[in-house]
Amino acid sequence: MGMSVTISEATDQDVEQIFRLQYLCFQSEAALYGNYRIDPLVQSLDSVRQEVAADCVFVARLGDEVVGSVRGRVAGDGSAAIGKLCVHPRLQGHGIGARLLRAAESALAAQRGATRFRLSAAHRSEGGLRLYRRVGYVAVGTDKGTDGVPMIILEKAAGDYAATA
Hints:
Layout: E1 5-9, H1 15-25, H2 27-33, H3 39-42, H4 45-54, E2 56-62, E3 65-74, E4 79-87, H5 96-112, E5 116-122, H6 126-134, E6 138-144, E7 150-157
Parallel strand pairs: 4-5
Antiparallel strand pairs: 1-2, 2-3, 3-4, 5-7, 6-7
């Protein structure tokens, strides 16, 4: 009998698994740029703990194992920044990333008043960019991350969150 992946809000008990999963998932991103100092790889455990306590954080679970994660926070202007979406490499391509995005978008709009969602993806992150476009995000600009990686900035209106099935 197989288990199904469930999506739920993260708790303090999830912090260490989120931290380890993030480190695992962003190795391939670092390899694309030959830069193993990208932000998700150098973030501290305490910083992840603070984000789980303060932000809107969802996890995907397979049994007791955290196999996916996403974070979001709403700024004063009503825009929600969504970041660090990751799914365990062995489970990528099964819709878990889209389900995590939908959960975060829904909570950010309904509970925290988000009117717009914004995220960024490394410009060589074809899988991530494909997912974001498929669920309604549109490129609105570029930036350079604090780690020097060229990023594409994508947005969509909060009213479009239901379309991320």
